[in-house]
Amino acid sequence: MRYPRLGALPAVVGALLVGSSTAATAAGPATAAPAVIRPAPSPPVTTPSPPATTQPATAPVPAPDTTVGRQVGWLVDASRRLPVPETELRAHLTEPSLTALGGVAGINALLRTAAGDTGLRLAAYRAQFRREDGYAFGTLHGAGRTWHLVAIAVADGRLGRLAITPVPTSWAELDGRLGRLAPRATLLAAEVTGAGRCRPVHTVGAATARPIGSVFKLYVLGALGEAVRRGSASWDEPFAVRDEWKVSRTEPVGALAAGTRLPLRTYAEYMIYYSDNSATDHLMHRLGRSAVEAQQVRFGTRRPDANTPMLTTREVLQLKTIDYPRYADAYAGLPTDAHRRAFLREVLPGLPPPAGSWPEPRHIDSIEWFASANDLCRIMTGLQRQSRVPGQRDIGRVLSLEGTTSVGLDLARWPVGRFKGGSEPGVLARNYLARTATGRTFAVAVLLSDPARSINDSARTAELLALVNGGFGLLDRS
Fold this sequence. Notes:
This protein is α+β, with helices and mostly antiparallel strands. It has helices at residues 9-12, 67-78, 86-92, 95-100, 103-115, 171-179, 217-230, 264-273, 277-287, 289-299, 313-321, 326-332, 337-346, 373-387, 393-400, 458-476, and strands at 44-46, 121-127, 135-142, 145-153, 159-166, 184-192, 198-204, 210-211, 238-240, 261-263, 370-371, 416-424, 427-435, 441-449. It has two domains: 1-52 and 169-478, DD-peptidase/beta-lactamase superfamily (Beta-lactamase, 3-Layer(aba) Sandwich); 54-167, Nuclear Transport Factor 2, Chain: A (Roll). The strands form four sheets. It has a six-stranded antiparallel sheet with strand order 1-7-6-14-13-12. A four-stranded antiparallel sheet has the order 2-3-4-5, with helices on both faces.
């Protein structure tokens, strides 16, 4: 859960939803916890990959005249006159970012590999919503292939983060790289039919339920939409902030004074775009835990019992940060749903507020939210159906605020994108839906987890974004 949004790369691109991006280094194996779900792994299932193409013949796009846009323009120019001298690199990259790229020799080698003999061309440029001056994603063409770009400018105008990652050109390449990201990796790449069903094109263990972090907030959004449809709630309904429902005072809702009234629409926007845990819990209290649990069934989730009772974000954080692992072990060891609900009702309210972040995986197989990649696609298509109902356009709007920005999909070719991600130490989840300009709709869902060590570093996130970009490209050519 975010603490806060703008930090290391995972926070920027919506990964940091449980835990902290600053806690990316594992401190050793987590305390063992009883596993809720232990299904057998499944082999990849796929249709044949489309023929690999050489560098696409799209015209280059200009980088905008923003702080980060000018740095992207410099990068493209510099790729045509290698090697770039050290003085010039230090004028454009911070010391940490230069070090992360392997120093002067490392970045010149990277640029030589990516640019080939003719230099890089900017093929797509996406600016982060509300952070257009400092955060950019996109794709570059060079050396006969496509490269995913992450560029983040810091206060002095230099690049504090730069990643140039090859986009896979086949399902086999994608699978191999995905498997190196985490010991447990599942994937669904699907086309959404006109009837709103997910037609798998390529899968890796897509039926296996895994921890999903704050992707569960899509259930809350769906439950809000259902309440609006039934007339028991309204997007414009004012709802007061309460201190006992706050999770962190660094979040938009957590920073507000108790009694501040916000429309439910604003809570939903903060919940999805900022992954604001305080906003999420306010909506869960307004709608009721049972309403969010019921939304799983409406969306067709295959194992809704894995999420009952549906934990609030404050409850998860209390269990994982207050005198850990005392309360976590006690909760995970309870035998029935009734026992767990009683624990949430009688024990947790007496505990202090959550105590921040943690560096290592903690009970990710027993105290989390769970779904399969197949489930995530059904959630997205369910929300898509809800958003088409009169009065429900806010569902699509909040999911599109981030959309496919971090994946770097070209807006001219992919005008519609929707997204929610989630993570905590040991968990990294991504759920996307995008529609092409020709009207085809695709979904890509990825679930990574490791019960022994954190997988939430910036390099891994950049690699995952490149894989998702490649997945959409392969789907579009299928």
